[in-house]
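Quick one: co-fold with NAP.
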Amino acid sequence: VTQALLVSTKPATMAVWREELLALDPTLDIRLFPETGPVEDIAAAVTWNHPPEDLYRYPNLRLLISMGAGVDHLFRPPGPPPGVAVVRLVDRLLTTAMSEYVMLAVLRHHRQDAGYRALQAAGVWEELPAPDTEATRIGIMGLGNLGADAARKLAALDFRVAGWSRTARALPGIETFAGEKGLLPFLARTDILVCLLPLTPATEGIINARTLAALPRGAYVINAARGGHVVEDDLLAALESGHVAGATLDVFRTEPLPEGHRFWTHPKVILTPHAASITIPRSVAPQVVDNLARLREGRPLANVVDVTVGY
Ligand SMILES: NC(=O)c1ccc[n+]([C@@H]2O[C@H](COP(=O)([O-])OP(=O)(O)OC[C@H]3O[C@@H](n4cnc5c(N)ncnc54)[C@H](OP(=O)(O)O)[C@@H]3O)[C@@H](O)[C@H]2O)c1
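Sure, here it is.
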C-alpha cells in the first residue's frame, strides 16, 4: 500500500518542508496540497492552518502532525477525524526563541525602555525610578515546554516567578498554582502576566475583564500564545483605565491584524506579527521523520496530543 505524506501550508514553505524531509528520508512519498494524488494514498499529514474538513477526505489517514507547537488549528470544527492520532512539535529552537521573546518584553517593560526612548526623543537627560527585580512578580500562564523554559530563565534573572497550569506542577524556584481555584491567587500576585497557554475551549478568552481586574493595578500583559486567549475589548478598556499599564502582543483574534485595529497605534501596546517563535523546517524535520517511522513500525508516537483536552 502507498503511504504518502500530505504537506499543507503556504506554498513557498511547503517546498522547503519537502526538501528537508527528503534530505533525511529520500524514500518518503510527499504530496504538496492540493496535489494530493488519489486520496487513498495519504497515511499522514503535516499541516498548518489547513481546512480541518478536508482531512475527512483521506480514508487511510492515521496521523496528523502540527507544523507548530500549537494544535488549535487542527481542533477548529469539525476537528481531527476520529481515530486519527495527533502530534505536535517540541523543538529546542522554538522554545529558545519564545523565551527570548518573553524576556525581551519583560526587560523592555521592567527597564522602562519606552520612557527612556521618549526622554531621548525629547533630548532630556533624566533618570527614572530604579526598578527592583527581586520585588517584581512575573506570572506565567501555562507551564509546558514553553512556559517552563521562560519561567526558569526569568527566575535566573532574579525575578520572582510563579506559574499556573491545569494540573499541579513542581518547578525548582518557581511558585506554582493550578486549576480554576489557583487562578485568582496567581493573578493577585502577578505584576507581569505572560500567557503561554494552548488555545482550548477551557482557555478561550481567559484574559478578560474579570481576570485583568484580579491583577494588581499597573500590571503588564504579554501574550505570545494565541489571539483567542484575549478578549480584546476588555484589554483595551483595562489599558484605557490605567489598570493595565501596557501590553506586548504577538497574536490576535484576526491575523493579519486588520488595518485600523486599535492595537496598531495604541501608545501602550507593542505588537509583533505572530513572530515570537517561528518553526524552522530543518530543525523539526528529524522529529517528523521519526514519528513517520514510528507510525510505519507501530511504535508509540512522540509528542502526542490528548485529543480529549485539545492540547
Ligand atoms: N506566538 C508564537 O509564535 C507561538 C509559537 C509556539 C507556540 N505558541 C503557543 O504556545 C502554546 C504553548 O506551547 P507549549 O509547547 O508550551 O504547550 P504545552 O507543552 O502543551 O503546555 C501547555 C501548558 O498549559 C497548561 N494548560 C493547558 N490548559 C490549561 C487550563 N485549562 N488551565 C490552566 N493551564 C492549562 C498545561 O497544563 P498541564 O501542565 O497541567 O498540562 C501546560 O502547562 C501553544 O499551544 C501555542 O498556542 C505560540
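If it helps, The mean pLDDT is 98.
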